[in-house]
Specification:
Length: 137
Amino acid sequence: MNPRQVVDYMMEKDHFSQFLGIKIIDIKENYALIEMEITKQMLNGLGTVHGGVTFAFADSAFAFSSNNDGNAAVALSVTINFTKAGREGDIFRAESVLVNDTRKTAIYDIKISNQNHDLVAKFVGTVYKIGKKVVEL
C-alpha cells in the first residue's frame, strides 16, 4: 500500500477524526497535511477553540504521518504550545513533518495554522514503532 492508501485505510476506521470533520489534503511518506473547520461544538466557555480539540487535530496529523509507511507506530511522548486562539468558522490546517528517525522511534514536528496562515499551535511528538503493520491491528 502506498502512503495515501494507508491513510485512507486508517481514516475509514478513525471515527474520531471523522467526527471532527478532518479532511486529508496531502499525504507523502512520513508527511501529512490535514484540514478542519472549527464549529461551535469545538468552542470552550470563553468562546475560543478548546485546547483538546486543537490537540486532537494535531494528534491526527501525527498519526497519519507516522503510520503511512504501513508500519504501526504509537505516541510515546508529545508536547503542545498554543500560540493563538481559534474561533468558530476558522479553518485549521495541520502539517506533520518527520524530523528524526531511528530504528524504534521517530520525532515529528506538527504546525497548526489558521486560514490566515497564523500559527495557532506547535506540537512535537515522538512515536514508538511497535513492529506490526497498520493493517494487522
